[in-house]
Amino acid sequence: MNTTDNTGLGLIKTVIERVQNKKSLFLSALKKLINSTEEELDDFLKRKIAPQVIAGILRLISNGQILKLKALAGGRLIYNAAGTFKSFIDSDFVKWGIDKPGIATPETILQVHEMIGDGKLMDIFCSLPGAWNQKWVSQDQVIEFCETLPEWLRQEGYATFFLIKKDENNLIDENGPESNLVVVNVHVNSDGLDVDVRRLGRDDVLDGENRRRVVSPQLMSSAT
Predict the structure, then answer these.
(1) Shortest CA distance to 164 belongs to which of 128, 115, 200, 192?
(2) C-alpha R_g of the chain
(3) Residue 123 shares a structural domain with residue 148
(4) Domain span at residue 137?
(5) How many domains does the chain divide into?
(6) Which of the residues 25, 91, 116, 130 could staple to 134 if both were Cys, CB 3.0 to 4.6 A apart?
(7) What is the number of helices (H) and of strands (E) in the chain?
């Protein structure tokens, strides 16, 4: 009686048997996987094949896409970017002192997640990999993203989140990130973009049903 091996290695072996071109690169890659241990294969599948879900709150949706921002001088600030945010700019950017000169940033690759579970803003950004100093973008980069990659903003009036520094020239306290980090919310409206700012530590819980998005720098270790 024929039996089917439904393990990860067994399924890959079945695929190899069906490959007709014995010299194909695909075949060579599969054979390399066959020589992997079950643990190595499981890690590969989690990183490259399985849906990338972080802590049940976020799901990576830009995997395989290169969302690159050019090097920026840091001169543009959100509070006076009326040409980009034509619908509305929150006055709290000025009230909270988020109107100080920014810093230059190198060419940067970003990634986009969408919410699939409920969470506070702190929960959302805690679930991203890396230290707090690896999760923020400059105000100039927020503006550049909105201008050059607008198709990655959440539509239908729901927010896209960016983590920014209140003062880009000051450090982040990894044990108390809310002292110099706030969350920028960008909405796409019929009359253009609007932007507001929220405390990282605010208490309201956001539901995952509306698929709000989160934009952050892509860590080198997660690059494809």
Answers:
(1) 200
(2) 21
(3) yes
(4) 54-222
(5) 2
(6) 130
(7) 6, 9
Please state, in angstroms and rounded to a whole number, the distance separating the CA atoms of residues 25 and 4: 26
Q: pTM of the entire structure?
A: 0.76
Q: What angle do CA 81, 84, 86 make, to 5 degrees?
A: 95
Report the pLDDT value the prediction gives residue 48, as an integer from 0 to 100: 46
Same domain, 39 and 93: no
pLDDT tens digit sequence for 39-94: 666 555 444 444 456 668 999 999 989 999 999 999 999 999 999 999 999 999 99
1 found inside a domain: no
Q: Inform me whether the pLDDT recorded for 124 exceeds 50.
A: yes
Residues 6+ apart with CB under 8 A from 223: 109
Are residue 20 and residue 85 in the same domain, yes or no? no
The pLDDT > 90 percentage for the chain reads 72
CB–CB of 203/120 below 8 Å?
Answer: yes
